[in-house]
6,7-dimethyl-8-ribityllumazine synthase (Tenuifilum thalassicum), 167 residues
Amino acid sequence: MATYLKNLSSYDPKHVPSAKNMKFGIVVSDWNDSVTHKLLEGAYNTLIEHGANEENILVKHVPGAFELTLGGQFMGEYADLDAVICLGCVIQGETRHFDYICQSVTSGITELNMNYNIPFIFGVLTTDNLEQAIDRAGGKHGNKGVEAAITAIKMAALQKEMEELEE
Ligand SMILES: Nc1c(NC[C@H](O)[C@H](O)[C@H](O)CO)[nH]c(=O)[nH]c1=O
Ligand SMILES: CC(=O)[C@@H](O)COP(=O)(O)O
């Protein structure tokens, strides 16, 4: 189905494990904060809706998407968390700077998953323009922060299942 017909954030709550007793980090960049703070709201509220406790959600801000990788690494290094959600919004400008930022943050977050063996969720919008970003931050195409939170819960639950196999 073409994106224009989709709410990209729709999901079946019955297929989402409880987030009770899970500990989450959210690192959010403040570039395009009118968008990223909507992503943060969506992610935070979704974690709460699925049973997470407020005291188990650590939120930290970084300047831009490029800094999400190091901000995520700080979370992995200094906090005891079950999953880290990385939220940002990169919007194409006049130059190829967009490409480098997107490539850097994508590979950086991927590497964190491997280095820390906990889920680091890619909740970064990479859009042609502000309208596309707004549509995906609580607009007609849903909220990428909601999707990232659901993914974090599911992956943290999967890790707990796998750890239990070792016991
Ligand atoms: N243009 C956008 C940026 N640029 C800033 C970089 O992310 C970074 O903070 C800077 O290069 C210093 O290291 N960041 C976004 O998040 N979104 C943009 O559209
Ligand atoms: C993604 C960016 O860094 C971008 O906003 C910068 O804009 P420009 O390419 O016009 O310098």
The two ends are 43 Å apart (CA to CA). The chain has one domain: 21-166.
